[in-house]
Amino acid sequence: MDSRKSAGRREPESSIEAVSGWIVGRLPDSWFEGAPAVTIDHEEILIVGRLLAPDLGDEVDAAAATAAEAGRITRFREETREDRIAIAREGQHLFGRTISWGAEVGNSRQVFTNLSIPVMTRLRQSERMVLDTLVDSGVARSRSDALAWCVKLVGTNADEWLLNLRKAMETVETVRRQGPHT
Prior knowledge:
Blueprint: H1 3-6, H2 16-26, E1 37-40, E2 44-50, H3 62-95, E3 98-105, E4 108-113, H4 125-136, H5 143-157, H6 159-178
Parallel strand pairs: 2-3
Antiparallel strand pairs: 1-2, 3-4
Helix pairs in contact: 4-5
């Protein structure tokens, strides 16, 4: 049983709507073009906002554009550091999850801080051989990197299926919230 529930304390509200609403209300309007993208899992809330693109004029090559975008993201990161830390502390207290940050501009995206969570799993020999092949071929540095590579590959190739599964889970959560409360 969760000690927070048994002690009579209410768990922090952490639906995507509640978290996103709080974040949009808390952030300075000048930081991002529109509302930031908010991604939530069990341990972390990731906030990634779109920055105003630098004005480079009409004729600029791809390398200059990429460098300007990287510079814009770096400037944002440095200029907002103290305020982002304060907002993260507030949000972490409210929602019980680590708050991480990122920014995007043009075709560039950078996540500044985010968690890397160890995950234990039991793999049979045939599954370990897949990871070892990725390591031996130089695709990954370690079994851990190989497993992360596999997860990214599945996520990329199963986006629609995963999106449908997440929508179904949201529907279940909505129905659960509408049920009787103990």
